[in-house]
Design brief:
Radius of gyration: 18 Å
CATH architecture of the largest domain: Up-down Bundle
Number of helices: 11
Strand order of the largest sheet: 2-1-3-4
CATH topology of the largest domain: Glutathione S-transferase Yfyf (Class Pi), Chain A, domain 2
Number of domains: 2
Amino acid sequence: MLTLYQFPISHFCEKARWALDYKDIEHQKVTLLPGLHVGKMKKLAGRSSVPVLKHGDSIIHGSSEIIDHLDLKFDWNRLTPIDEDQKRKAREWEEFADKNLGPQVRLVVYHIMLDYPDLLIPFFTQDGPWYGAFLMKKMFPKLRDKMRNLMKINEQTAAKSNEQLVKVVDDLANHYANHEFMIGNEFSRADLTAAALLAPIVMPDKYGVAWPVEIPQRMQEFISQFDGKLDWVNRLYDSYR
């Protein structure tokens, strides 16, 4: 049995969840509480961040590395192209997205949502230990300050990340307006990465968290910048998630 250590709201964890589900690999999920996860992950993987996959005696850290491992060990529904040129391009795009989409979405969303603990805490505790909600309410003020400090979340960094996102999303919208896939003629890790890392803006049902019925005005304004530019994310989720 494979075990995925994760946060439900994490879009990098969503990359790993999607890969496991797309390849139809039986696994179990262990949902950790942010902040309290550090000791367990350092002991298990030598690093504090998630996702982490345990497969027998193998410990795989990071969403891209997890996809590598799954394609190596389970040869059906491959996410990595066979063709060497397409493989290189898919990996290059994934690396670009991991650096230029993932952190930027995370920073802007947390910059807004950390001011709304009643909405954010359920994301942190969904499918976690029974005591999660009670404990998270107690520790949230310190966790919020720590997250802002460690991730350098502030008005200036959020503005810069938002500017970067607008540019990349425009490029992606232009690409997917003329192409079904990012690389070649098949769904690959390039498409999965692009859609998963932008999913917190689109909030697709298949992401796996209970999105709020109403979201704060600041979040609505952030999301509205991308109206009509992320339809391809929903298409990929509908077809391949």
